[in-house]
Amino acid sequence: MSDEDIMKKIAELEPTIDTLKKLQDSGIIAALEALSDQADLIINFASNMEVLGTMSIMFRLMGIADISMGKVDQDKLIRDAKEIDWGQLFEMLFRILKFVANDAKNIPKPAGKQKLKEALGELRSPETEYLIKLMSGMSKQLMQKDD
Questions:
Q1: 4-41: pLDDT as tens digits
Q2: Whole-angstrom Cα distance, residue 141 to residue 84?
Q3: Calpha distance 72→81 (Å, rounded)
Q4: Cα-only R_g, the chain
Q5: Phi, psi of 108 (to 5 degrees)
Q6: CA-CA distance, 42 to 37, in Å (whole number)?
Q7: Alpha-carbon distance 90 to 54, whole Å?
Q8: Residue 103 confidence (pLDDT)
Q9: Cα–Cα distance measured from residue 29 to residue 37, given in angstroms and rounded to the nearest whole number
Q10: Is residue 47 over pLDDT 70?
Q11: Burial track 87-101 (b if 16+ CB lie within 10 A, e otherwise)
C-alpha cells in the first residue's frame, strides 16, 4: 500500500474519528463501557425484577384468594418466598422443559408388559431412587400441617 493510499484511507476515516471524539467528549463512550462492564449485573437485576414483578402480581391476586379460600398470610408468603433459591428452581424447571421439548419424544412407548428382570433393573436405578426421594419429599411437604 502506497503513502497516497494510506492518506486516502485516513481521509475516509476522518469523519468517523471525529464522531468518536465527540462521543468520547460527551461521555457516551464511557457510559457504554460501564454498561458493558456491568452487563451480567444488569441481566441478573432484570431477571430478579421479573421475579419481583411476578410476586407483585401474586399479591394483587391475594384479594381474590382471600375471598375464595380464606385469609392468606402475606407475611408467611413473603418469608417463604425469600427462602426459595430461585436460581436453582428455575435451573431445574428449564432442565425439565428442555428434556420434555427435546428428549421425551425419543423414549420408546411400551409394546407390552415389561419383563420382571427389566422392571427390577429400572427400579434399582439411581434415577428411580432419586425420583422416589423427590416425590417422597414433596409428599411430606404437602402433608405437613402449618402451625
A1: 888 888 888 888 888 878 777 777 767 766 666 666 66
A2: 14
A3: 14
A4: 29
A5: -70, 140
A6: 10
A7: 14
A8: 84
A9: 12
A10: no
A11: eeeeeeeeeeeeeee
In the numeric block, which cell numbers belong to residue 131?
425420583
Decide: 62 and 72 in contact? Cβ < 8 Å.
yes
103, 88 Cβ separation under 8 angstroms: no
Looking at residue 67, what is its pLDDT? 59
Question: pLDDT, tens digit, for every residue of 82-115?
Answer: 888 888 888 888 888 888 888 888 888 878 887 8
8 A C-beta contact, residue 35 and residue 42 = yes
* pLDDT at 45 exceeding the cut of 70: no
Q: Rounded CA gap, 22 and 34, in Å?
A: 18
The DSSP element (H or E) to which 74 belongs, if any, is helix 74-83
Residue 82 vs residues 51, 76, 78, 79: alpha-carbon distances, Å: 11, 10, 6, 5
